[in-house]
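_Per-residue structure_
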Amino acid sequence: TSILGHEGIQKMIKYGYVIVAADARGTGASTGWRKGEFSRDEAFDGYEITQWIASQKWCNGKVGMFGRSYMGISQYMVASTKPKNLKAIFPEMAMFDTYDFIYQGGIFKKPFNDVWGNLIRYLDMEGNPAPVDNDPEAQAIRQAIIQRAKNIYPDELNASLLPIRDAWHDSIGFYPFIENSPSNYLEEINQAMIPAYIFAGWQDAYIKDALLWFANLIAPHKISIGSWHHGNNDNFDLTIERIRWFDYWLKDTDNGVMAEKPVYYHTSGTESGSGWAASDTWPVNGTKVSTYFLGAGIPSRPLATMQENVFPPVRDESFSDTYIFDLTTSSGNSSRWAATHGAKFSTPDMTFNDKKSLTYTSLPLNNDMLITGHPILYLWVIPSQIDFELFVYLNEVDEKGKSVNLTEGCIRASHRLASKAPYQNLNTPWFRRYEEDLRPCKPGEPVLLCFDLIPLSHLVKKGHSIRISICAADIDNALNSVNKPNGHFSILSSDTHSSFIEIPVVTK
């Protein structure tokens, strides 16, 4: 299959690079079969390929890897095998933890999972790969397709497992969310000491993953984050960045790429052509937490009130707002999750969804607010069920009442037990979510749900408001496993049960 049409390939060749593209086992023109995605077998296949490349007469012995999504994740998995000739990687929008992506907050991202599984099944079984040189009649490919009938696809695998990190797959005999997760090999990746340029987007499903990689890698590394979704990098010359990175590490060209600040990021909501900034650290310097307490409002209706941006904020009077489940709520079918499998992306307009949710909205802001970092939500909830799923959106509301999503989070209540993270988790709650960690609720008794929202950098304009929108479904992006029609929960806030959100704000 020709790769010459892929972004920047021709330019990289002109700069003196040989580009090698290999089909993973069980796909394209390769033989064998896959025990799920990101398997150890596949990682060691990558090890062999890098060593073969390094041994060729046209190679100086130094190999780099680049690519997005699956090809980005593969770079970390290959790095975990510690190939001595792999000298630099450029992972773009790549996952950190398999379970946390498939089961965000313990909630199954089934629509993505189904499309993903069907897509790669089609590519494996119905695709038209170029035959290898010694097989012009493609007989070997036809034989390979027969072998890959044993492939285990994500829609089959994940749907058959319990929704826990330590789920066991009986027929193959392994723990997919542990053995096939890049985060499980962080120690090996760090032992390999392979420099990494991490490329990410605020609207991408893997944005926290990218920041987790940045926080946990030991080898020289840097990160660039634009206001992009999974399929784009508008107004950014990605090819030149790749070339700069590989020139430094593969050609020993001192081009200054490592003299730059390691964090380069864009802030959405800024004027066109502006909004880029550099930082020595993540979280960025000058970040302070602004706490907003949820205030009393009309249950199950929009435009309940939340404290305006007062420092320090003052908690409103005690209240309990009851929300009756509306299982039609959604962040839409052009969300960050849909873009991950190639769907068209657009920033979700949440105005209609807010009308079917429980909302808490600030007064119009007196000044611009620069939100950069990881919002964390603390909700006291009184459930009507032993388990339930809850979705939260942080939205910006303009003067005309239009509500646009900035970020989101969700949690399944039985998965609420937090644990000590086995790595640097950016000072956000971490959940092991083993079977023994599950905690059912007692209907009528309050439970505390504490979880982070997807990180962001966004400028909320003066005169606009910020809104917390709470509902019980995201029908286009998540499977409803436990919420029942006419079920309900109540959001509680009192002297002993304060519900609030911590928002990271950068001050000048």
About this structure: DSSP finds 13 helices and 21 strands in the chain. The first strand starts at residue 63 and ends at 68.
